[in-house]
Automatic annotation (TrEMBL):
Keywords annotated in UniProt: RNA-binding
Molecular-function GO terms, alphabetical: RNA binding
Record lineage: Bacteria, Bacillati, Bacillota, Clostridia, Eubacteriales
Cross-referenced InterPro entries: Nucleotide-bd_a/b_plait_sf, RqcP2_RBD
Protein name (database record): Ribosome-associated protein quality control protein P2 RNA-binding domain-containing protein
Organism: Clostridium sporogenes
Domain Ribosome-associated protein quality control protein P2 RNA-binding: 81-161
PROSITE patterns associated with the record: S4 (PS50889)
Amino acid sequence: MDKEKFLNKVNIEDKSLLLDIYNKAILAEKTGKQLFSSYFCTNNICKVSCELAHFLNLKIDIFGVFKDAERQIIGFNVYDTKDFPIVLVKIDYNSKFVNLEHKDFLGALTSLGIKREKMGDLVLKQNSCYVPIYEDLYEYIYMNLDHIAKVPCRIEKMDLKTQVIPEFNFQEKSIIVSSNRADSIVASLCNISRTKALDLIGASKVFVDYDEVKSKTKEIHRGSIVTIRGYGKFKMDSFIGETVKGRIKILFKKFI
């Protein structure tokens, strides 16, 4: 697989993410060394990276700490996840009057100058946020992150072998649609009209598996991640069945 073909497999503006993976894969294939992506990669990038590794007959592993992780580090010639340069950070806060959200933690981390691609998924549990990061960033975060939205916080490094790793929180949502087209599903997930769903698609606010949806007729399949800016992120879990009139019943899980 040549470089240009690989770079065009995923529709993203920043091709440097794909170029980094391509170069690491080629180097790993030539040297046999254990190499890792420089960024946490979304599932669409992980998928094409597996295709590249298969083409090169190269061992590949992907690790993002959490079950069902959406952002993961890619490793070539890796045989044990303990070798991944990853640390799970737990951010605790203690406040009876403030309920911090995903955007608060993400905003605090990026305000330190840390790029989104250097972090994995954020999982919130009660008064804690768990986030995988590259291990070389831990000391910097530990020394510099002391508040989240003006609320004092405490930083702790989790032991991936001995401590319980949290899982995502989901809210189940069943919808009934005429088809699995993007416009129909977006309208049902957001409880809006088909016209407003088309407006969201036209405004580049709808993504499937992190690729922008440019056509209302795009079909969404089981396991796909649907991100709708302003409404949330949803995973298509399963097809439940059909109504008497032939409409489709689909179960989604919303990330919360």
